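Below sits my pick:
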Amino acid sequence: MRVIIAILFFLVTSVPASADERILTAQREILSLDIEELMNLYIITATRTNVKLKEAPATVYVITDKMIDERGYRILSDALHDVPGFDFQHTYGIWPDLFHQRGIVGNSQRSLLYVDDIPQNNISENAVRGGGNIRFPLCNVKRIEIVSGPVSPLFGANAFNGIINIITKDEKDDPGGKIYGTAGAYMDKGKIDGDYTGKSIGFSLRGKNDGSNLFRYSLSGYYQKSTGPDFRGIKNLDADNKGYFWSDYYNNSHDETYNLTAKLSLGNLRFEIISWQYLQGQGTFANGHYQIDTDKRGFEGSNWDYYDTSMRLSYLYEISPSLKLESELINRYTGILNSSHEQYPKDKTPDAYNFPNDVTTQRNYERDDRSYELEERLTWNHDNKFASLAGIEAIHTDVPEGYGVSKRHEFTNYGAYLQEIYRPAESVSLTGGYRFDYNTDYGSSHNPRVSAVWTRGDFVIKSLFSTGFRAPTAWELFNATNQRKSNPNLKPETMRNYEIGLGYTLFDSHHISLSAYYNEIEDLILEAATNEYNPSTGKNWNRNQNVGKAAINGIEASSDFKISDNLSLYAGYTYSDGRYKDISSSVANSPAVKNGDKIPNIAPHKINAGITYFLLPKLSFHLRANYIHKRETISTNPIREIDEYTLLHANIRWEDVVMKGFYLQLLCRNLLDENAFDPGVRTAEGTYYPTQHPVEGRNVWLTIGYKF
């Protein structure tokens, strides 16, 4: 901690006092957008057309590039922690940041992630699972648009509970680029531990080549290597060795990753490729006495290594100034590399680490997923009152039925959608949408959407209804492991969403928004315990099952205040109360879920708040807090409740230091080194799956970069 204080003192005191008056009158280029400018920002994700943020027919949150800089967000999950409606379970491994949007637990497969409207969920699981997507680097990002609630009427079967769309920078708005490097460490008792460190480098470059056909490009690259957090010796086992345990040699949260993104355009012809690889340890996903958590002492440890390559080719045909047709082809390849493996000790006690030769190594996890998508999208802005959107698409998916198997499963989804926006008056916007899908596995689905938005001066009122549809993924249907059996008889999930939203802007510098919603989910798919004994684990088998229904009541509040030119505040609040209903008879005797139970692992109350203060026009200090209320756990978890916690994060950023374009940033996460835990994943019974997962302790990161 003394190191942090010393660096902060140096950064603040090294500015000459004589420069104060001149600097205070300089243009504050790094300040965030004014509140009114933010509310009038045009976004695309909510309607697949440009619409003002305050008029969007949905609850939408936006993280801008200046927020990313001021707050020190490095990766996507950093930013999502400050958005209302998100719950997390951190394993720092196979699912480094498992998230649940709007109170529905799962495997991060009920929200869709896009980068520049290109899907990023992996194909077999349709989940934001690997570190390369939930930890997508933000080095070349213009903004992040988060839509809360189902968007299936526009985006199809799996836009079930929300969409996250990362919009990268382009030459038109942000010419130039940057290079930077980051280094940091996880601290132990206030001291930097040289065994647990990380480093990254990155660049972005945007430009154009004038000619008869204007050529534009936006390129970015990122590389990171880290040992991950230090969870050595964290344990709490009962007499039967149930609970949570990680060995004194733990180093299972290491990662090594690269990300390359290229966006090219020649006139109206566009091409984009996003390619990443993420090599990662399994983290705290499993207990250390059921799965080896180190590559020391003669062990190999456990690794899950992912890759993803997505390519899009599109052409925009401008039939007239008001009528445009866009043709789009997307090819995607996702999978698990053959370097992935797990080691299981035969002695399922902490003594297992004395016997490196007494283990079973499972290696057959390689998987190759493919999908091909063709879409035609027509937009027609009739006049100031009417705007139409219509589209057709076909997506063919080809995936293996499980880890390391040659048998493959293929299916095709055909979709057609229509959306009409009608403005009978300047203050009123009515939106209606409908989508029809036919899936060769599950047949047809129908998803309507209606909304009304009323704007009167500084007030906005929204009334929303939408539906969602989610087909079981190949992973949920066919994938089997040592703990889980397959279930090819799953039915799709469906959702109905009812929502009302209020917004108020005061003096163009303060904004408050409030959303209240009620969601009904049918045929909910969860991994639940069965009554069938599993000799490999000594417990009953798990299986993905349609457990029944769920109902969720929720409130999300968000506020932004610009107090002065150099001081701004934000705060968010989330309330969630979800319960299971009409539990299927197939799981009625299972301890995993019971009729009327609260949906587990979801905090009923969450608060996020932050303050940004500019000590000088180019030198900012940011401090934020994330409060997580106590969480009830799944009924198979012997720990019935996980304690609340509050994490503080601080960031100092200095632009144009020494020379124009040169910048420094110092980020400290978990500033007070809070000893915090998240609920265990899946059944969390304390044998293979831990009852709790530790949250990373204090860690510090210094970034040096140059913008040009």
